Amino acid sequence: MQEILDAILSTDATSADFANIALPESYRAVTLHKDEEQMFAGLASRDKDPRKSLHLDDVALPELGPGEALVAVMASSVNYNTVWSSIFEPVSTFGFLERYGRLSPLTKRHDLPYHILGSDLAGVVLRTGAGVNAWKPGDEVVAHCLSVELESPDGHNDTMMDPEQRIWGFETNFGGLAQIALVKTNQLLPKPKHLTWEEAASPGLVNSTAYRQLVSQNGAGMKQGDNVLIWGASGGLGSYATQYALAGGATPICVVSSEAKAEICRAMGAEAIIDRSAEGYKFWKDENNQDPREWKRLGSKIREFTGGEDVDIVFEHPGRETFGASVYVTRKGGTIVTCASTSGFMHQYDNRYLWMSLKRIVGSHFANYREAFEANRLVAKGKIHPTLSKVYSLEETGQAALDVHQNKHQGKVGVLCLAPQEGMGVRDHELRAKHLPAINRFRDI
Ligand SMILES: NC(=O)c1ccc[n+]([C@@H]2O[C@H](COP(=O)([O-])OP(=O)(O)OC[C@H]3O[C@@H](n4cnc5c(N)ncnc54)[C@H](OP(=O)(O)O)[C@@H]3O)[C@@H](O)[C@H]2O)c1
């Protein structure tokens, strides 16, 4: 492993040098153990502690298949899917691995008694499999997390429609929270040159998801002048949605739960900010009944910021707790675009407000390769910035996941894998200097 790291740090190692490095038989990786699937049975979600379920193990290097790459991972990040996986909710991820393993002898590699998590990486290509022409050893890359087989016609307009669509490092094995990862080469994207390894690794999953959900025609198709209500506007997804709204000439109305988070939204350039804790919204009167007066109170607050206008788009992901309010506050003909249900997936809303006002609910999930490329390109050009707040070591991934689980974090939480320290990997210092304050916005808040 030291030889790999030395080659990366030397900055003048050639592709041939990387291709000639003998790969180790094993590497360190953050894993879940199949025989611990039931370890949290009977506990409430908030009491399930990722520090207990996430392990740092030595694992065997997987065999490299056609169309794949082994990548030396310098840094990765924690996503909410790391939290879901680590608390075995809503289901254990080992079911995904078993199902994938039934597809072919090659996918059988993924069905193991351990699951290596992680859906982001920044690093260097070590080996490519048969049939790969676009990438070579030594390339500095980030990876998006869409894994597709594309053997069916269904995915050929939009790869997210592939019946064998999976999220790498969540529904597949050999993820990015490790020293080496296995990806399909159609997951690879050029690493933004002005960013450190940990900064470059942090946008991937949430940036691509927010791009499709808000900007792409496959999502809400946001346009200039739109009012966009963004739940969790300083969180993983929301911190990118806020940037896309601002960069695209729309007006974000940011919902957060503390003054510190409101301050971050202001630093990004947002002016309309609602502190849901300070306002004390209570959309549910009890377990089964919502309070439409609270929906109206939110709607009135929004109109104070917009000069009386309602929102064109709601960027939804909290789910059950907020969905009734989201449908209510959307303008006539507007769009509620949802990619998640953090607070519960059985939603309830008053359908009269949907059909009578001709609103649309659009489901969105990750992004296709083109959308992920476009989202990464905007980061590489310095138009969208990483929202990294804190960085942990691979050993501390359990704590990093607990922070996200307890909503104690801002933006994204990074993890150093092979990188010995923060701050390495910058190749374009001029572009970095131009955007340094924006790159560091979320740090040390
Ligand atoms: N389908 C996909 O492709 C996809 C991709 C990425 C993420 N996701 C899912 O989307 C969800 C959010 O992911 P993330 O990375 O943005 O997580 P995150 O970093 O935890 O941010 C979510 C934010 O939502 C807000 N929030 C949480 N619970 C809420 C509630 N009950 N009511 C109102 N606001 C609430 C919080 O902000 P405040 O406390 O400041 O309000 C929190 O910071 C997760 O469930 C994740 O699994 C789905």
What does this structure look like?
- Pfam families: ADH_N (PF08240), ADH_zinc_N (PF00107).
- With about 450 residues, the chain is α/β, with parallel strands linked by helices.
- The chain is built from 16 helices and 18 strands.
- The longest helix is centred in the C-terminal third of the chain and has 15 residues, at about 290-305.
- The two termini are about 35 Å apart.
- It has helices at about 1-10, 15-20, 50-55, 80-85, 95-100, 195-200, 205-215, 235-245, 260-270, 275-280, 290-305, 325-330, 350-355, 370-380, 395-405, 430-440, and strands at about 25-35, 55-60, 70-80, 115, 120-130, 140-145, 145, 165, 180-185, 190, 225-230, 250-255, 270-275, 310-315, 330-340, 360-365, 390-395, 410-415.
- Helix 7 (about 205-215) crosses helix 14 and helix 11 (about 290-305) packs across helix 12.
- It is about 30% helix and about 20% strand.
- The strands form 4 sheets. Strands 3, 5, 6, 9, 10, 17 and 18 form a 7-stranded mixed sheet that branches. A 6-stranded parallel sheet has the order 13-12-11-14-15-16.
- It binds NADP nicotinamide-adenine-dinucleotide phosphate.
- NADP nicotinamide-adenine-dinucleotide phosphate (NAP) binds near residues 257 and 404.
List keywords for this structure.
445 residues; EC 1.3.1.86; binds NADP nicotinamide-adenine-dinucleotide phosphate; seven-stranded mixed sheet; 18 strands; 31% helix; six-stranded parallel sheet; alpha/beta; 22% strand
